[in-house]
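Entry details:
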Amino acid sequence: MQALTLLGALGMFLYGMNLMSGGLQKAAGSRLRNFLTTMTSNPFKGVLTGIGITSVIQSSSATTVMTVGFVNAGLLTLTQAICVIMGANIGTTVTAWLVALLGFKADISLFAVPLMAVGFILSLSKRDKRRNISELIVGFSLLFLGLSLMKESVPDLRETPEVLAFIQDWTSYGFGSVLIFLLFGTVLTLVLQSSSATMALTLIMVNMGWIPFEMGAAMVLGENIGTTITANIAAAVGNANARRAALAHTLFNVFGVCWALALFNPFLQLVGEVITWMGLPNPLYIDHTLTMTTNDATATLYGVSMLHTLFNTFNTLILVWFTPLIARIVTRIIKDKRQAEDDTVKLKFIDAGPLSTAELAIGQARNEVIHFAEISRKGLDYIRGIVHAKDDKEFEAMRQKLVKYEEISDRIEYEIATFLNALPEESISEETRTEEKRMYKIIGELESLGDSGEAVSRILTRRNSHKQSFSQEQTSKIDTMINAIDHAYEIMINNLRSENFDALGLRLATDCEIEINELRNTIREEEIRRIESSNANYLSAVYYLDTVSEMERMGDFIINISQALDSDIK
């Protein structure tokens, strides 16, 4: 029963951390995304960004996975991502200090239950922001309730030393014990998928006297290797840069562990001196097999937390100067795949699947929507090509391209919609939910543009089957129509890219739509006059007007996309 209680308490700790992280992400929303993408102009800003975000959302794994996803989405360069990940390693040490300062020094669980009542009251609010804050409060409460239960459910080795005698046996192999506990910390982090949870367990083990300070330090080093697996899992199906960012995280932490092991004793002496400067006993000289005083327990807890902080800080200060070199190394290890000519028609930004940080994944989807619009615009070149085809072979090649692009637009719409649908509604803010609905509308219009291109190919195929063709003047007018649609595409894509879509962007898009409509009306009136004067081939004129009408519909779909962004106008 004690073992089951320990597992349940660990589950409560992890769930509380996820809930707290999710509440913070939703409360911050787009501000957190903008902060990440704008505060990375140089390596040191990137490091500070990683520290800041990880300190806020209390999860280096979340920051790292998010960063890998942003590299995959093209929102961050590889070099920027490496700096953010370095900062995330420092930021995660805040969690260790919170646990050491609050979880052991004071019984925070006494306040956790009343705090949950506050969280419940806030959850009843109709305001989205208050409900997000309620998640944060409840998550914080569950985290420390779980920590309190873990402390209470672990066995007292002085009363029942046989329970974990095997762990204490591991401490008698000299430097071999250091390697054993390093491996133990790595495996434990791999299993729990949370370095913070492993850190909490390490602090409990040293606080309860199961293991000495040195072995706790070795576990901390192992946790820094184990935590890299989360990013590598997220990047496994991502693009080359995403995998490089994850590999850089692994190289960074493994390098740090190597120098920390090489200088293990001097490094521990330094940590011990720092703790001594704080007015506490040196944790290196505390006998964990005896009943520890309050000062002894505090010194040991602070020693493990301080080692965690100094390790990641020193490692970052050493390697931040070599960020471009690290980027070159991982680029050489993970090479770009040879891209086929049609590679542009594949998903580019969301092939890594939804991020674990759902609130931040919307930036990935937004970039994929822009990419979809660019693919759609390229289909316009094939419409131009089929109109100007000089022979049956060239015509058939262009027709197949348009059919293919229609299938591609169907597939991309489906895959983006699937990605958006996989984002849990309860994990995103109201603002992001509105943006998600807007994206569903936009990808539907982009898919309709693909249908229109294929529809033009069907009209021209029927024209050819009746041995008809367009005159040079008709072809010239269609070219004018295509140029107007191309300009409308350009305005629409600029509007999609704009971080601050405004009335000017909508007016430019509307002007393009008016121009396309007027062109369609002028062409139709001129052609009807020719038919009435018997100067035009009636059957050819029908196909000509059908083509122009279908192209005018493309203008309608394009303006619909800019209008879907209209709700962003303040």
